[in-house]
Each structure stands twice: as C-alpha cells, then as structure tokens.
Write a structure and sequence with these properties.
The structure holds two protein chains of two kinds. Chain A is mainly alpha-helical. Among the domains of chain A are: 17-46; 77-231, no CATH class; 377-453; 464-646, no CATH class; 752-864, Cytochrome c-like domain (Cytochrome Bc1 Complex, Chain D, domain 2, Orthogonal Bundle); 881-997, Cytochrome Bc1 Complex, Chain D, domain 2, CATH 1.10.760.10. Chain A is built from 41 helices and eight strands. In chain B, the strands form six sheets. Chain B has a five-stranded mixed sheet with strand order 9-15-14-11-12, with no helix packed on it. A four-stranded antiparallel sheet of chain B has the order 16-5-18-19, with no helix packed on it. A four-stranded mixed sheet of chain B has the order 8-7-10-13, with no helix packed on it. Chain B contains three helices and 20 strands. Chain B has a single domain, classed as Sandwich (Immunoglobulin-like), CATH 2.60.40.420. Chain B is mostly beta strands. Classes of the chains: A mainly alpha, B mainly beta. At the A-B interface, helix 2, helix 3 and helix 31 of A face helix 1, helix 2 and strand 11 of B.
C-alpha cells in the first residue's frame, strides 16, 4: 500500500503551460493588432468625416459649377456686358499693332543692344576701377601719375563691338566705340526702353479700364462664386489632405481642432444644413461674425466653449462631459460667448438674445439685489469721485503749505539766486494748485451729476401715504402679479403677518405732505392724450390680447384702484416734483426715470382722470394694523430680511446694502458652489447638472432648490418669483452663462478707448431710459409705438411715429443736439410743444438728464456716425443774388413741393405740415447730411414721407426731375447743393417772401 | 484546470473591457441617420413651396359674375378737404365727395372680390393686362385696384401738380417716389401677395388708395354699378370673399362645374 504512494509530479516538468502561453500570446497579439487599429482608426474618427466631406463637397460643387457657369453666361450675354466687351475688343484692336511693334522693338532691339553695350562698358569700367584702387593704395606719387595715365589710356581705347540694331530688325552693326560712347549707348537704350514701356502702358490704359469695368460688372451681378473659383475648390478637394485641422493660438494657449470635422465652416460657398447630408458640414451660420472675429486669431472654443483639443468623439469635443468645466454653449445660448469680451456693453449688435438678457437684468431690477459690474455703475462711480475729491483737497492743502514754506525761505535767503529758486518753486506750486482747483470744481460737478443719476430701481416708498390707497398696499405686497400680471415687482413668498408688518412699517415711515387738489378732467380727452402723447412708449394698458403699449414701465390697467387722483395729476404733470425730504438736499436728489411730457395742468388732469377710471370692482379689506407701531417694528426686520431697500427708497434704510450675491462672474463659479441642494442627484440623472440647468430652473422657480428641505420660514430661499417667460429665462441664462472671468488678454476683449467707447456708454443711458420705446435707433428695432394698433394699421397714423435715429449723428450738430436733449421744446417759455416736429401728436419728453448724461448721449450719436467732436462747421459758400433768386424759384416750383409738407410758421398752413421748419435748419442740421437726405431720403429713414427721386443725374450734377422753372434752366450748378445752401441761409424774411410767392 | 480558469477569468474580461473602451468611438453618422430615418428629406429652407403650375382649359373654364348691393344708410364721410392745395381745388367744380364708401343706386363700388380658398398649392400664369392707377384731380382713380403678384401696375399722374406715390406695405418692399406733372408712368410689379396695401400721397394727405396683390388671377373689384366678373376659373369648389375697406368682409361658398357660369350677390347693409 505504502509502495503505492505516488510521487507528486514536478509541475515544472510534467505540466504543460503551452496552452496558457498560446492563449496569452494570441491575446497579446490581438491586443497589439487592436492597439494599432485603435490608434489609426478609432482614435481618429475625423478621418471618416474628412473622407465623407471631401466626397460630398466635391459632388455638391460639381452640381453648383454648371449653375454658376450658366449664370455667368447669362451675364455675359447681357447687353451691358456685351457692350463693354465689344468696346474692350475695339480698344485692344486699336492698339494691338503698336503694342506688337513696341514689344518687338524692346525685346529684339533695345534690350539686346543695351545688354551688349553694357557688357563691353562694364569690362572697361572694371579695368578703370582696378587702376583707381591701385592709385588709392599706392604711396608713390610717380606711380600714381603713371596709373592715371593708364586710366586715360583705357578711356580713350577704341573697342570693337557688335551691337544689334535698336529697331528690332535682328540685324547687327559693328561699331568702334570708346568708353564714354559705350556708356552713352547703354544709357540711351535704357531710356528708350523706359519710354517704350510707358508708351505701352499708356496705349493699354483704355483697354485695361474697360476690362476692369467689365469684370466689375460680372462680379457685381453674379451672386456667389464664379465657375473658375468653384473649379479651384474642386481641385482643392482632389488634393485634400487628411489630418488634424487645427488653430493654435500661442498667447492664450488655445488649440482648436473643431475644423477637423466641421470642415465646411469656413468654405467660401454657403453650405446649408443638409446640402452635404450631415449638418456637421454646414457653413458657419453667421459668416459676418467670422469676418470681425477671424478664427485664425480667435479660434472657435474661445467663443463657443467646449474642448477644442478633443478629437475622439462628439461628446468629448463639445465638452458635454461631466469632467469638462466649460461645455459648449447650446445654440439657444450661443451668444453667451460674446459677453466675456463684450462685458462693458449692454448692447452688442448681432447678439440679440444676449442683449435681451442684459436689458432684462437692468429693467427687471436684478441689480437691486445682485451686484453686477456696470449695472448701477453710477453709485460706484460716485463713491470713487468722492474719494478722489478727498485726495485732491489733501493735495491742494499740501501744495499750499509747501508754497508758504518756500516763500518764507525765499524771503530769508542769503543771496538773490537762492531766493529766486525758492520763489520759482513757490510760483510753480501756486500754478499747480490753480489746476488742482479746476479739477476739484469739475469733480464736484460730476459728484452732483452722479448723485442725480444714482437711482434705485423701484419707486421711492417714502411717498406712499400721498400716493397710494392704504388698503391696497398689503394686497400688492402679498402678490403684485395678481394685481398686475408681468409687473416688475416680483412675488415674494411672504407670510400674511409679514405682509402686514411690512405694510405697517412703510405706512408709518412715509413722508407727510400736502397735495394740491385738482378738479376732475375729461377722461375721453385723457385717453386720446394717453394713447398718442407718448405715455405708451413705456406704459401699457389692457390685459391679455387687448394689451397695448410698451413694457418698460407699469401696466396701468388697474391703476385707478391704487393711486390717489391728486398725486397722479402731480406725477403726470411733473415727475420731478416730489414731497420735500429733509434728509436729501435738492441738488443731490435722484432724478426720476419718468420724463416730463410738458403737459398743461388741464392735460395732466385729463390723463389722470382717464387713468383713475382704469379699475375693477375689487374691494380691499380695511387694514387697521398698518397704524400699529408694534407691527411696524417687526416690519423693519422683514424689510431688511427680504432686501426691499435694494430697489426702493425707504425711510431709515438709506444705507442698506444688497442682499444677493454678486453675479459679475457667476458663469465661472465652480459648479459645486451652485447650491442644487436636494436636486443634485436628480439634476445629474436628468442631465441638467450644469450652470445652464441651474440658472434656468432657478429663474423659472426661485424656490425650486428649497424643495424637500426641512427649514424654518426665515431660512428659506428669499429670491422672489418674476414669472418670467421661457424666452426671458433663456435671455437671462445666456447673459449669466457669459458672465465669466475671462482668461483672454486685453487685446482680445472689446474695451475700446476711442469713439467706440462713446457708443458703448451711450447704450447704457439709452437702455436705462428706453429711448427705443419711441425711436428706432438700430435697424431692426421695433419701438413700442409701432405696435400700438392705430400706428400699426392706419397709414395716416404711421406718419405720426416718432423719428428714426439711424443717422442722427450725421444729421444734427452736436451742440444743438445737447441743447435739444436738455430742452426738447427748444424754448424756455413756450414749452407745451415739440421744438422740431410740432406736427407730431407724440411729444419728445424732457428727461431729467444730468449734464454728464447729455454729453454722453451726444457723443454716442456722433461716434456712431463717425462724426468728429468737437464739430467744425462746414464752410458754406454764400449765395449770390442770382442764386438766391433761383433758389427761391426752385423752392416754390411744382417740382419741389417742399412747402407742402414742411412747416412754415404760419399756423393755418402748419395744420397739415408733416415735416420740420426750415428756419431751424442752419443751427440744427449738417449741410452734407441735408444734401444726401434730399437725394435719397429712404436710405436714411426707411418709410419716410419724404419722397425719393426728386432729383435726377445730369452729367456730374443733380437737377430737379420735374419741370424746372425758367430762371433755373440756365443755372449750371447742382440743384441739390443750391437748395442746401439756400436752406441754410434762410431767415424769417426769406420765408415770408416765399409764402408770398406761393 | 482551475488555474486555467483563473487565468482566463482574469484575462478575457480585461481584454474585452479594453476592446469595449476602444470601441466607444464616434458614431455621429449612424446616429444621425437613425434619427432622421423616416423623416422627410432635407429642409426646404426659406423658399416658398413651389406649387403646381396650372393651365386652364378655356373650353371648360367657369365664370363667376355678381353684384354687390347696399341697403340702409350710407355711412357718411366728410367731403375731401383740398384747401391746402389751390391747384387741386381748381380741378374740381365744387365739393369733392369722399371715396371711402361709394354707393350708386344701391350698388356698392370698390369691393374686392376674390377666391380665398380652393386654389391652395396651385400656380397660375401671371396676368399681363395693364392695371392703371391714375392721379387725377388729386384723387386716386380708381380708389381700389387689384393686381396679381408680378403683374405690373401702371401709375400715372394726369394732374398739373407734383404727387408722390407712397405704398405702405407690410410684406412687400416699401418705396416712395415723387412723380411730377407730366412725368413718365411708374410701372411697378409687387413681388409678393398682400391684401390692402395703402397708397398715400404725402404731399396731399387726403389722397388714399388701396392695392390688393393676389397670388392667383381670380379676383375683381366691383365697378360703379356694383358688378364684378371673375372668368377662366377651373371648375371646382371655392370660397369667394368680398372685402370692403370700411364695411368689412363677407364670404360665400361656390361650386362651379365645367363651362358653368354662376352668379353671386354680396349684400352689404348700412
């Protein structure tokens, strides 16, 4: 049994691992094969993109080529082209013989002869040069003399040369020439060549001009690329190089390989989304943006975000990946990419979604709670100016003291020279202080300006006792959107007792004062005034489908329920008239945003009467608690907690700061610092754990991240609900996504210091004062006025729209503009009118602009039209008596019905006027603009009542296209120019004369 | 045996994992194809859908004739006030009645009648007859004109004074040209269909006319005796609409067979 004990076999020798090894080896081999395949194919998916692109694109171009060729042919067949082409052939034919002659003479005669002469000449010259060198290095006068003789010998040596004849016949002649004769021959030929070439150019000038004209006609008429250019593109595709296409910008360490797949983005042919089957190959949808942001200088991901280096997959390249911090913006937010470099702007042309977000941020009052750099900048500037003032005052005192010291030292100095030095130093300090003093004065003005500009977003609540119906206040605070849907006052989540406490505090701390009593006015007249005078540029009325007017200011559908009549009359008549506040000196009082329409007392009463009839039957329960001091005390805490003072002036809370977080860099805040609270998991699962997801949900429902949390009432999120529309949420989200700390150096950011900065600054004032509610300032603007039914539907009312301001800077003189903006009546006494367009029912209101704002607005309009500031008036040739007579004739002729529409100052005629008075032209307008306006008004104000084609071209001047009066028929000048000069030299006497003529 | 299992168990999944990882490449094209499969082909872009071009056989074409009647009190509009322009007053013997509502013997003029439904998706050759809009006596004659899109409108000035012609479309291009006395006619073809384009003369603000630009050639404007006729209509069922600038719209359903002639009456009341 024991013998049967088995010896354990040695596993090393007895057991075969060959199978293991084989399997391992096969696996390793497979891995290697796989690794190579992976590296070459899988890791380079762009290869497939490129293969497909070059195939599809070639096909696309091949289809396009004959179409374009046909179009080119069509243009070639057009009579204009044919005519030019014919003229070109004739011109070429006319000079062909002479050109050939010149070419032969130059090519076969002049140049060969010149070359031959130069060859012989150069040999002699080098010999002379050699002798000269020897003279220079020699120390022996005798040797020098003999060398000079050698030179003379060379100069007089006769050389035998064979020169081709200059006429190009090909014949040669043998000549015996000396050094100077050779030089003369060579120079003469050179001259001849220049002369012939000049003659050739001259002869071809006409043909070249015609060819350029013909080619210009072709490129002018042909939309898209020419057939030859397309052939070039097809050839490019044939030689297509497969590989990474990347943009590398060293200074910002950017590598973008986007174009490895998005191959059509910059192709010169427009490629539609499905032209190459797959949208990945389409052209950039806004090539005009690439023109100002050349991808070679900006890259792609600098605007779009995403991971520009990644080429492995769509997800990775687009950065739509949990671990990539800057995912590519979705199309609806793509303009977020503009904000980082255009952070100083509130209006960026072409970025309409972003502009909407910025405007909402400003005009929904987000900045009341959340600081954002640039918004409410006046308050911060005011602080800075005050600090600067303190510094300057200190400098002034220090200088004054040092001056006194120097004077004393001078008085007691031992010698005159030293005394003079002390005195000079004292003098210098005195002059310096004169400058400092002037600077202090300017800063003080700026301080006053800024103090007037600084304004909280909402109305002051210090006046509510005079302004509002007491019982209405708690209902409003409880739910403003119940009373006024879409109001800028958001809905807070308040307990009933908080509502009562806040109401009590506001009521008991409001100012007392006296209001003048007013009789009721005429509501019907009031309604007409309300709808046409200008109120609806900002305010709306009616709800739902019947809502009309602007949304910049409150909807007044129920204003009669809330506001006291007498207060309303005062407010409409003069919004700057307020109940005196003992705490604020008048000069420093913030000016209202609402302007004055310069209404009469009666008109104000009529409008107020109409508005006070805008009400429902809603009853408000009595609110005795509003007089309870204990409630008020509790109210103060609630007001602080909810940050009411961020938007409203409230007694006792003048210095209260903002309660929200600073959003200037919110878009680059690390994601984990955005508090998704209990929603984090859900957000990750549903794919909205991102800045975009957070902003969108928070804006839609600011309490959303409280959901599921166990919290005391006062610990809950405070942000109120603005009930924003989906479009508004998208605009604000876009803005916040773009609110990032830029990593780009200065040269990438749009922070100009030239006149473009004036344009940027101007937009802030324009947005804040809703100038676009009445005026179209940028093409595409739709003003609130344009949407009011009567203006939209009735052609007669359409003429009553406030003027378009597309070229305002080119139109008016800056000093005039500043004066007009400050006083649009253009009169101190006669203010119940428009200064320029008296015929408009709508009135340009008087805004309470500070001088600083007036200057900025004026500079804005000038900068936008590239108008130099200061303005140097164009010199204008005085009219001769004869010209004045002709001007008068033209002005009143049937061909120029100027006085039919333009005001003349005669009330009976001005009833029907629809255009401004000529008398103010010379101080208001610029002559060059006026000239262009007469020729093509539609190019300046589309839709204007002023007709086009009043003039026609006659040689190099413009003449009236109608029957020209006898006197003017012999006038040889430009009619439009004459009329401009006539208009600019018009005065009251001349105008009366014209009327007599009519 | 077990050793081998362990080995395989360790190796194979690792290998498969590596493969799977490497396979997770880009399948944009497949995904896009899957997503768009079943959907109609490429986007058509902004261009209007091109309908089928119809040639009407005159042998079977139908005709709609009719009459616009008016009963009750004629809405009164103040007479035209030309006091701002003596040249215009001189062209008239006396008072110039308003052309907003013109009723003769109970028949209403200036009513636009057109086929509003029943011709969708069809295209018709553009009418070539000349439609004239004249400025005569500082009044547009006629007050309402209708043209097919692409059909030229011939605008003339028969007055001794300068006018400006200023159509105020919402969908077409806006323009505003001065036309002096005796100046050549302005020929203009509106490229887009649009109802009720107001035309103004800014120099004489009382002047107003309306232009209707139609997609198809089946329309007419009622004459002074209230009649209208729409001919060469392919047989079928249609909605016929009447539009008057002051008195509003009316509709009737009509069915016309081959070579039939139908009579329709629109009755407006004051």
């Amino acid at each position: 049994m024991a013998e049967e004990t088995q010896v354990q076999p040695d596993p090393i020798t007895s057991k075969s691992y060959s199978v293991h090894l084989l399997v391992s080896m096969l696996l390793l081999l497979a891995s290697l094969v796989w690794a190579i395949y992976d590296e070459v194919e899988i890791m380079r998916p762009y290869k497939e993109y490129q293969a497909r692109f070059s195939a599809y694109y070639t096909g696309f171009l091949m289809e396009l080529q004959p179409q374009q060729a046909a179009r080119e042919d069509e243009i070639r067949q057009s009579p204009e082209y044919q005519e030019l082409d014919g003229e070109l052939s004739t011109a070429e034919q006319a000079v062909r013989a002479r050109i050939a002659e010149i070419d032969r003479e130059v090519g076969r005669g002049v140049v060969p002869r010149m070359t031959a002469a130069r060859g012989a000449f150069q040999i002699l010259r080098s010999e002379i040069d050699a002798q000269r060198y020897l003279i220079e290095v020699s120390h022996d006068e005798g040797e020098k003399e003999s060398l000079r003789e050698d030179i003379e010998e060379i100069r007089s040596r006769v050389v035998e040369v064979e020169l081709p004849l200059a006429d190009g016949s090909g014949e040669t002649e043998e000549l015996e020439l000396q050094y100077e004769q050779l030089e003369a021959e060579f120079l003469g030929m050179q001259e001849r060549r220049t002369a012939l070439q000049a003659e050739r150019l001259e002869a071809l000038a006409e043909a070249n001009r015609l060819r350029a004209e013909r080619d210009a006609l072709m490129s002018d008429r042909l939309v898209g690329l020419g057939a030859t250019q397309i052939d070039g593109l097809i050839a490019n595709m044939r030689n297509f190089d497969v590989g990474i296409k990347q943009i590398h910008l060293l200074d910002i360490d950017l590598v973008d390989r986007c174009e490895s797949c998005h191959l059509g983005i910059r192709e010169p042919v427009e490629i539609g989304a499905t032209d190459l089957i797959y949208p990945v190959f389409k052209s950039h949808p806004r090539p005009e943006l690439l023109q100002i942001h050349d991808p070679e200088a900006f890259g792609c991901s600098s605007c779009h975000n995403g991971n520009g280096r990644a080429t492995r997959s769509v997800t990775k390249g687009h950065g739509r990946h949990k671990f990539w911090l800057w995912p590519m913006y979705y199309p609806e937010n793509v303009e977020a990419g503009c904000q980082q470099c255009h952070a100083k702007e509130v209006v960026t042309p072409g970025g309409e979604t972003l502009n909407m977000g910025r405007e909402l941020y400003m005009n929904k009052g987000c900045w009341g709670c959340h600081r954002f750099e640039g918004y409410d900048a006046e308050a911060e500037e005011l602080t800075a100016v005050r600090q600067e003032l303190r510094n300057l005052n200190a400098t002034y005192s220090a200088n004054a003291k040092e001056m006194r010291v120097n004077l004393d030292l001078g008085d007691t100095a031992s010698d005159g020279g030293a005394a003079q030095r002390y005195y000079a130093r004292a003098e210098e300090l005195r002059l310096t202080n004169t400058r400092v003093d002037a600077e202090i004065h300017n800063l003080q003005m700026e301080e006053t300006n800024l103090a007037q500009e600084v304004k909280k977003f909402g109305p002051s609540l210090k006046e509510i006792k005079l302004k509002d119906v007491k019982e209405w206040i708690p209902a409003w605070i409880k739910d403003p959107h119940e009373f006024r849907p879409g109001s800028k006052m958001p809905v807070f989540r308040l307990l009933d007792e908080e509502v009562q406490q806040i109401s009590a505090y506001l009521w008991q701390n409001a100012l007392d004062g006296e209001l003048a009593r007013h009789p009721r006015g005429n509501a019907e007249r009031g309604q007409e005034l309300f709808e046409t005078r200008g109120c609806m540029g900002c305010h709306s009325i009616g709800e739902g489908d019947s809502r009309m007017g602007g949304d910049f200011a409150a909807n007044l559908s129920r204003v009669g329920e809330k506001m006291n009549y007498d207060y309303m009359v005062r407010w409409i008549h003069d919004p700057s008239e307020v109940t005196p506040d003992p705490d604020v000196p008048d000069a420093m009082r913030p000016r209202p945003v609402m302007p004055s329409l310069r209404l009469t007392d009666q008109e104000s009463r009529d409008i107020a009467t109409y508005l006070s009839e805008q009400r429902t039957d809603q009853e408000y329960p009595p609110a005795p608690y509003m007089d309870d001091p204990d409630m008020a005390a509790a109210g103060l805490a609630a007001i602080r907690h909810y940050g009411c003072a961020g938007c409203h002036e409230i007694t006792g809370l003048e210095e209260e700061g903002r309660i929200g977080t600073d959003l200037t860099l919110e878009g680059s805040k690390p994601l984990e610092r955005l508090d998704f609270a209990l929603k984090t998991h859900e957000a990750e699962l549903e794919g909205w754990y991102s800045h975009k997801g957070f902003f969108e949900r928070k804006l839609e429902n600011p309490a959303v991240f409280d959901e599921g949390k166990e919290r005391e009432h006062l610990e809950r999120l405070r942000m109120p609900n603005f009930n924003l529309s989906a479009e508004e949420i998208n605009g604000l989200t876009t803005f916040l996504l773009g609110a990032v700390e830029t990593t780009f150096p200065e040269q990438y950011r749009f922070e100009p210091e030239d006149e473009r900065a004036d344009v940027q600054e101007g937009w802030w004032i324009i947005t804040r004062h809703n100038c676009t509610g009445c005026h179209q300032i940028r093409p595409g603007n739709v003003s609130s006025f344009m949407t009011i039914p009567r203006y939209a539907d009735d052609p007669d009312w359409a003429e009553q729209l406030p003027p378009q301001l597309y070229t305002e800077g080119a139109r008016v003189q800056p000093e005039w503009l500043a004066g007009f903006l400050s006083n649009p009546a253009l009169s101190e006494s006669d203010i119940n009118r428009n200064g320029v367009r008296e015929y408009l029912h709508a009135r340009m209101p008087t805004f309470y602009f500070s001088d600083r704002q007036l200057a900025k607005l004026t500079k804005f309009f000038m900068a936008r039209d590239s108008q130099p500031v200061p303005h140097m008036p164009e010199a204008m040739e005085p009219l001769t008596n004869a010209e004045r007579a002709i001007g008068r004739q033209l002005f009143t002729s049937d061909a120029a019905p100027c006085l039919q529409c333009h005001m003349t100052g005669v009330p009976s005629q001005d009833v029907d006027a629809t255009a401004p008075n000529f008398l103010i032209a010379s101080e208001r307008l610029k002559p060059n603009w006026t000239y262009r306006w007469m020729l093509e008004p539609a190019a300046i104000a589309p839709g204007t009542a002023m007709p086009s084609e009043l003039f026609e071209r006659d040689g190099d001047r413009w003449v009236f296209s109608g029957q020209i009066p006898a006197q003017a028929r012999n006038y040889e000048g430009d009619h439009a120019d004459l009329l401009t000069r006539y208009m600019f030299q018009m005065d009251g006497a001349e105008l009366r004369r014209l009327q007599a003529l009519q | 045996m077990s050793n081998r299992r362990v080995l395989a168990a360790a190796f194979v999944p690792a290998f498969l994992l590596a493969m799977a990882f490497a396979c997770g490449g880009d399948d944009y094209f497949d995904e896009y194809d899957a997503r768009t499969r079943g959907q109609s082909g490429g986007q058509s872009g902004d261009a209007a859908p091109v309908g089928e071009m119809v040639t009407v056989d005159p042998a079977t074409a139908a005709t709609v004739t009719g009459m616009i009647t008016f009963s009750g009190d004629v809405p009164r509009f103040p007479p035209v006030n030309m006091s701002a322009e003596p040249d215009c007053i001189q062209l008239h013997g006396g008072r110039v009645p308003s052309d907003r509502v013109v009723v003769n013997d109970g028949k209403l003029q200036h009513v636009m009648v057109w086929v509003s439904k029943g011709l969708e998706g069809k295209r018709f050759p553009v009418r070539t007859d000349m439609v004239n809009l004249d400025q005569d006596g500082c009044i547009y004659k006629p007050h309402v004109v209708a043209v097919q899109m692409g059909q030229p409108l011939n605008i003339t000035n028969s007055d001794p004074t300068t006018h400006n012609v200023h159509p105020l479309p919402r969908e077409n291009r806006e323009w505003n040209k001065s036309q002096t006395s005796g100046a050549p006619a302005i020929d203009y073809a509106f490229p887009r269909a649009e109802m009720k384009i107001a035309v103004k003369c800014n120099i004489h603000p009382w002047m107003q006319a309306y232009i209707h630009v139609m997609e198809h050639p089946y329309f007419a404007v009622s004459a002074a005796d209230g009649t209208f006729e729409i001919g060469n209509l392919p047989p079928g069922s249609y909605t016929l609409q009447a539009v008057h600038e002051q008195l509003g719209e009316q509709e009737v359903q009509i069915t016309v067979g081959a070579s039939e002639s139908t009579e329709v009456t629109f009755a407006y009341t004051g």
